[in-house]
Amino acid sequence: xxxxxxxxxxTVGATAGMSALFASSTSSLALxxxxxxxxxxxxxxxxHDNEKFWNALxxxxxxxxNLIMLNSANMTPTxxxxxxxxxxxxxxxxxxxSFQNRAKYRExxxxxxxxxxxxxxADADEIGFVRNxxxxxxxxxxxxxxxxxxxxxxxxxxxxxxxxAWFQRAERLGFSIIKVxxxxxxxxxxxxxxxxEAAMTENTKVLSFSHVSNxxxxxxxxxxxTEMAHRHGAQVLCDGAQTxxxxxxxxxxxxxxxxxxxxxxxxxxxxxxxxxxxxxxAQAALWPNIVTVGWQRAKANGAQKYESLGQRxxxxxxxxxxxxxxxxxxxxxxxxxxxxYLANTLRAHMTEKIANIKFLTEQxxxxxxxxxxxxxxxxxxxxxAKTLYDKYRIGGNIGGRDDVLRVRLxxxxxxxxxxxxxxxxYIAASV
Length: 431
Description:
The chain has helices spanning 3-11, 18-21, 27-42, 51-57, 80-95, 99-102, 104-119, 133-143, 164-173, 190-199, 222-231, 251-254, 280-283, 295-299, 314-330, 332-353, 381-390, 417-430; strands at 68-69, 127-130, 151-155, 176-180, 204-210, 235-239, 258-261, 274-278, 357-359, 372-376, 394-395, 397-401, 404-409. By secondary structure, it is α/β, with parallel strands linked by helices. It is globular, with a radius of gyration of 22 Å.
């Protein structure tokens, strides 16, 4: 663990640091924190299967009744501390959009930047705010000086913003893209590393991969891939859209040059409030995509020069910091364990109850994630997908054509263990 993250955890450890974190909260937000502290104190350890604690925590969400929300890989509901912050500052801005009133957001935005940096084991001047991971990835892809003869190694399971965007840039500048495919069955860590290393050459300038694939849920060993790429003289872009708020991340320890993520996924933050991480040593050679008002100040503050400068909803950036606070109240390790417990339980029920099911990329334990992707054959896919939402109220990535139903289900801490069995039962009844 890096000193940056170690010091951050000492300052804002789970439950112990809640009072300090919410010192500036409105009364309603402070009450929410008090309620969580009370539940935590009454719980007999924040274990992954302490249903008393996790069920009580669901009161911090306002999810529609009877909706089983299983779409964390795309968008999540936010806890009260987040969406009340958004509402509070939206109303404040509507009441008084003057320069004078808006001046306070410089301090709040910086505080949020510091929360995120500490949470991820980074420095504040390595964090630049953007709208989402797609924008963050393009910030890196369009900001690197690449030329004909250079090579970029990517994973075929990357998100399009970390895949198609590379091909578009290569078409313009003339460098080459090497796409890596992993074995369908993952038995060991070497199955995840060796195909990437085999693709590396003396011309490789960048290795770009999703930390966890949104396509299959496969989890890559980010630190070891980074070390391997650096041995070959390549920089590393790690797309963390599916890990920020899910896994316990220490960026200085991982060593990647660039890390990107979204606020509206696992961290339970607001929409259009995200960040790009650029390691200090990589900032001099990465060009910004947008330059406008405030450039000289931004240029002097590290990764702030990669922010989309100009007018923006600064209240949402503060709300993103609040989402980090919420995670720290509970403890990221506890959240990760809970998500994995729910996902493993759901997978077991689906395997038992659903005929003709095939999970994409069968993985040995430790190489999967909270994302479950499966194909269910011999069914009327469009009808089944409609039934699962209209009748059974399952909110997930569910679709398909003809006779193969594709489901991507991603539980989070607002889900219950009972919902995992119900979901399997409902899918079985629909196919």
